[in-house]
Amino acid sequence: MIETERLILRPPTTADRAALHAIWSDPLVMADLGSVKSAADSDATLARHANYGDGLGFHAVVRRSDDAVIGFCGLKPGAPATPIAGEIEAGWIIARTAWRQGFALEAMRGVLAWGWANTRAARVVAITARRNAKSRAMMERLGMYHLPDLDFLHPQFTVDDPLADVVTYALPRP
């Protein structure tokens, strides 16, 4: 568990499923991330991100003031068959109702602090569609910088899908 001033990041529970599915099924939230998820897709996402070993995994982001699940974030191994394979990758998603309140930044600062304390990673990377200006701005607020040599076409998408054009950012160990 990771605690910040306004948030608790903890492993997701069965009770979090509906809130997380609501986030993943929101077309505005998913516009630059991929397709809207069905309930089965959401369950598969939870299972995939549960535990990657070495303590890596994604957490439910819970707002302390009302115990609402407002997001999902964490660290995982970089996607195989991409230029970030072998790296530790950061990721986050926040419910639309919690946008523009600093929750993603606060959650990811907590995740990164955990990562530096509990891994030997020389850096953490994050990826997003080139067109995703909000995520790119978030990466820069975290202190990440663009690594154009590691930009790639993501194999999860067809070549003509604008989400396939992925940029890579990195944050070196402090």
From TrEMBL:
The UniProt record lists the N-acetyltransferase domain at 7-174
What InterPro entries does its record include?
Acyl_CoA_acyltransferase, GNAT_dom, N-acetyltransferase
- Give the protein's recorded name: GNAT family N-acetyltransferase
The scientific name of the source species is: Sphingomonas hominis
Identify the taxonomic lineage of the organism of origin: Bacteria, Pseudomonadati, Pseudomonadota, Alphaproteobacteria, Sphingomonadales
